[in-house]
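Table 4 source record.
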Amino acid sequence: MEAVNLLPLQARPGRRWATVGKDASPRRVLTGGAAVACVAVVGLGLAYVHERSVLNDQRATLAAVQTEVVAADAKAAPIRAAQSGVAARMPAATTVTASRIAWESLLADLSRVMPRRVRLQTLSMQSPTPLAAGAATPAAAPATPPGSTPTPSVGSAPFTVTGVATSHVRVALVLDRLASLPWLTNVTLVSSTNGASLAAGDTFSVNAGFNPGGAQ
């Protein structure tokens, strides 16, 4: 019967790897293993120290940023308080601005439409304001006989003007020009009186409703 060698080729006698490790003692193996383990532990330790250092730096940076945020918030507090005050006063300022009357513009319109040879003597424009709650109502006007037209008096309307014109034609022109102004309504001639002489002219009085919103 022929013998059969069950060893692998590299472990058979006369092969290159047959004697590998035979001269290694257990002490050398343990020493090498311990050295490898020490290197691994040192590597892990260095990695841990590095990561901990990075973490500490990040924590320090976060603390510094939080300190800056607190300081910036303290500086911004007065600004926010001022903004809140402005926002609280804004509705009142808007109301005042919306109800403000541009008197210079109204007077410029009036002077532009006045015809030549007409001289104004008095002018009154009253800003329309609502009555306060509980305010006394004006006294009732005297009764007017049926079929008659009530005659307004000077000063009873928000807009009143008196002046002198060279003729009744000029007075009529004044009424026409005043009626063309968008902020006047119900322009009414109160009176027109002939002067004692041509030099004196005709004295007139005019009332009208005043609506400053029509000038916008």
